[in-house]
Amino acid sequence: MIARYSGEGGTTLVDMLVGMTLAIIVGAGAVTFVRAQSLAMRVQAGQVDLNDSSRGTVEFMTREIRLAGYWAPNPGCPAAGFGIVSGGTQSLRIQYDLSEDNIIQAGAAASEDVTYQYVAATQTVQRVVGGVASDVATDVPSNAFQFRYYDSLGTEIVPGAGGLTAAQAAAVYRIGIRLEPSKTPDTRTTNQARASLWTNVGIRSREYQCQ
Fold this sequence. Notes:
alpha+beta, 11 strands
């Protein structure tokens, strides 16, 4: 038994135990706070990355789709087969004569025949050129990617089960793109990063009348 007399200095075992307990409680709180901040930063970083990658994807698609039907000799009168070859709610095939030689280059190295398509099995949006597919967006739920088509008056053109008919494709002046990917940026949290991008692309070759 430890006896303590009036005026005696020093620390007792009880004091030490109390101090250690308080230190553990404070330390545990600090660790919890730091962990929460770390997870929050990971979620924020994941959101920023998703926003940036999604914006880059949509901007790239926009620039390329705008060229559909481009034909240098006469942008408003593309040769047969140029422009929108086929289109559906989640797929679009376009052609454009970027090399200005009046021929569609279909090889993978320098393709002027491009398809964008959604792949449900992998939840990705792919760009296909020359038979080679590459992912341009990942973590895209089945209902989070869509093309919409509009004529010169702004009336929506709704593709059938088989996609746009030839007449519908020829009437398309503007294409809407919706991309809304989502993913969990850290395996230790259920918070999801989500991006929602909508844009409209005017078809360059349709803005000019045949001369």
